[in-house]
Amino acid sequence: MDRVVMYVDMDAYFASVEQASRPYLRGRPVAVVGSGKRAVIVASSYEAKRFGIKTGMTRGEAEKKLPSLVFVEGRNDKYVDTCVRIREILLRYTPEVEICSIDEFFADLTGSLLLFPSPADIAAAIKREIGERFGITCSVGIAPNKLVAKIAGELGKPDGLVSVEKDDVERFMEGLPVESIPGIGKKTGEALKALGITICRELMDFPVSVLRRRFGIRGDYLSFMARGIDPFRTQDQGGLPGSIGHSMTFEKNIGDRRMIRARLLELSGMVARRLRKEKVAAKGFSLTLRYPDFTTFTKRTTLPFYTVSGRIIYETVTALLDSFRLKDAVRLLGVSAFNIRRCAENPSLFGGLDREERLWRAVDDVNDAFGEFSLHPATALLCSRRHWVISPAYRPGKVYPYRR
Amino acid sequence: MLTRVGERVAAGVVFRKEGRKMELKWFLWKGRRLEIKKTTYMWRERDGRELIHRFVVTDGKDLYELSYRQEGLMWFLEAVETDG
What we know:
The complex is a heterodimer of chains A (404) and B (84). In chain A, 38% of the residues lie in helices and 21% in strands. Chain A is an alpha+beta fold and 404 residues long. In chain A, a hairpin with a 7-residue loop joins strand 2 and strand 3 (41-44). Chain B is mainly beta and 84 residues long. Chain B has one domain. Chain B is 0% helix and 74% strand. Chain B contains no helices and seven strands. Chain B has strands spanning 2-16, 21-29, 32-35, 38-47, 50-58, 63-69, 74-81. Chain B is globular and about 30 Å long. In chain B, 24% of the residues are buried. The model of chain B has no long low-confidence stretch (mean pLDDT 91). The interface between A and B is medium-sized, with 22 and 16 residues.
């Protein structure tokens, strides 16, 4: 039996959810932001996108571009819960559902075709139910693999349904611009253009040996993908996260190192808590600083051991901070953990940490019972609590990070 | 315009047997009984171990966000939103 994969992508997800819950916003340009004047846009409605409002724009930039834009504070729990419920709908059609981000799903329909008339019927039923229950739309792509299903889904946006049969894959791909292939961004697109390649037909006909010389092993992948062959693993096996990080944009730039350290303590604690919740440990840590002129620096370091300790993360990133010669106050700070591995339930890496581990476990238990930040280091009192919006890349099903 | 309220209120709810659904019918606020015309959105969230059900409802004029805290069996009017 030929494999059939369905890709479901919610259209302008956060903004659509807000428009659904507030009917007076329907048809109006809406941008979802965090709180505060400096919050950046995390999602915008199609009405706003038409006027060039993009994710990552500051509130001020967007306001200047479109004065009638309506800003709505994001509600993380609303988006996560809706995502979980959408997954429940998909699970009624196949047990093989993969959440790839908060608004994107893959569902393998191969085994379900004995029970339902056709993949298109399943897709139509899912689209209808999502529309009726949540008042939002989604785009669906159906194809023999995840790569083509995703490309088809993106092509049908918004509210589309694009199906590609196995025998039509090459024909479907050949006319598409190379940037339609996931992973080919502006930089790779320009590099391919320099080789005279702008559409997939040209990429599939191009000698692989030349692509390999120019892009390394990725050159082979590019050639495969242009033909609609998915060279990557077929299903997420609950793999380890590549990194776990948090960042904060401040209401006012911070120049005082004591305050920067207080923020780093808070960020380190948040990263450590997520490491512990995901039952992983990390030994690579990075510190990101952004100045008011938006120049951004990241420094990384790798420890000789894995850790889940907020204190060690804090000490590591403050050492990175000390190696910076701050030329200005900072508007954003970020702490990330990378080089991650699964850790045992009781990761006693060296004896001296047992007491601290017990302490953090107790802190985690209190916060699990009474909510995040019920118990936290006193230094964090220097930092005012803010509202933040979840990253669209967050995958429900993983441990839910934070709410405030 | 969004106005935060955060007041405990009395609410009339039908617990449907189909689909395990809660359907808000009315709530009492400032001595008035507000009849709910439509629930525009609902979701669940957790505050520690407590499960909170949130509803955005309309009386046909304004939007109201209500929450039901499962542990304490309490209803709250969280916010009122008027367009403009």
